[in-house]
Specification:
By secondary structure, the protein is mostly helical. It has a domain of 104 residues. The protein has 5 helices and 4 strands. The strands form 2 sheets. It has a two-stranded antiparallel ribbon with strand order 1-2. A two-stranded antiparallel sheet has the order 3-4. Strand 3 and strand 4 form a beta hairpin. Helix 2 runs parallel beside helix 4. The radius of gyration is 21 Å and the shape is elongated. The N and C termini lie far apart (49 Å). 12% of the residues are buried.
């Protein structure tokens, strides 16, 4: 059976509302007879292209240089991506046969906005504390960045 999802919004002083309420009602009415469990979870947006742009255009290149200066031998941003994910974006996988818990890097495509923010901040803190490199905050108006600002990144 296909999973039915809908997004609802609760705003200050307003009643809860469901986006595309008619589509949700139609999907629910099309279900076969039976008992169903409805669950409400907090919804977060996926990471934005601007967040990934800052990660790949600023954080990863600057940390690549800092890590190499510290003695690592990374060749490209892809290797740095794997390194940072192994440090700050793990998920635990259980082997039911042995009871062993393994950590594997989580895919950044699974990140929601707050995960991405925490991930980037963890890298920035590590670089600041252990590598002596301060990675700048993202430019909020990226369309207004001058060529000089681009060279500084």
């Amino acid at each position: 059976m296909k999973k039915i999802t809908a997004i609802g919004i609760k705003e200050e002083g307003k009643p809860f509302r469901i986006q595309n309420k008619t589509g949700l009602e139609s999907s629910l009415n099309d279900l076969p007879n039976g008992k169903y469990k409805l669950t409400i979870d907090r919804y977060f947006n996926k990471s934005s292209p601007a967040q990934f742009g800052w990660l790949y255009a600023c954080i990863y290149p600057m940390s690549l240089i800092a890590l190499n200066d510290a003695g690592y031998e990374f060749v490209n941003v892809d290797e740095v991506d794997i390194f940072w994910k192994s440090m700050f974006a793990n998920k635990e996988i259980l082997n039911r046969e042995t009871g062993e818990i393994m950590n594997i890097p989580k895919s950044k495509s699974e990140f929601v906005t707050v995960d991405q923010m925490a991930y980037c901040e963890s890298i920035r803190i590590y670089c600041s504390e252990y590598l002596g490199v301060n990675i700048p905050d993202p430019k909020t108006n990226y369309k207004e960045i001058s060529n000089q600002d681009k060279l500084e990144l």
